[in-house]
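lol ok so funny story. i was supposed to be doing the assay writeup but got distracted and ended up predicting the structure for this chain instead. priorities right. anyway since i did it might as well share w the group, maybe its usefull for someone
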Amino acid sequence: MANDKLAKPQTFGILSAAPDELAAMQELVADAVADDVTQFDLPEIKVPAGGSTSWEVPTLEGDQALKSLRAVILCAQRVRQYYADEFSGESVPPDCASSDGCTGQGSPGGDCASCPLAQWGSGTNGGQACSERRHMMLLKEDAALPMFLNLPPSSLKGFKRFRALLLGAMTPLHGVVVELGLTKAKSSTGIEYSQVTFTAAGKLDPEATAHAAELRDVFAAMLTARLDAPAAPDPAAAVNVDDF
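and the output, tada:
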């Protein structure tokens, strides 16, 4: 990430909207919440299977294929979820879950670092039976509400490195426009999968960063609620293909 990419502060969609536009959008959001629109109704993008290098982004006109996704990461929650049974198609809560990646609630519960289910080799294909992930809220420039992304273990190293670079540049995660790309990778057993890449596309101006911080607080709470609510496990996660 070159320093010159962060040199010129940028405006960004709703984060840089005029006060009257923000007020109108807040009214629309309030109407949606009153109509029982929850965190599960927000659009979701998924890391594709099989090593695909294109995102499938939901829009009003249908899914749109994109080579890169330009967004602001409002929040990224470290989580763990463990399902004792294989995916059956039913919506069920996890047997054990952690909203901070450190302490599990449920069975077996307790300290995640020392839990046998969090160790490499405890799952299929040498992966973890209970793998660490990041639940993210991504705000696109043409949207007023964010999209949900469940970042798999295979992309955590790249995300952590990106976040460390931001810290070195004294920039919060929600204070920069990010280009999320996809590259093809292969596990030690020859299984192809997709990895997410993170590249800074520009630093937000102070006002946009402040608005992003406000949204971060709102949607971080939604992420916690999402983890605690019953939800079907990702069928691909049961295979642990992306644990490598």
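The chain has a mean pLDDT of 84. The two ends are 25 Å apart (CA to CA).
back to the writeup now i swear
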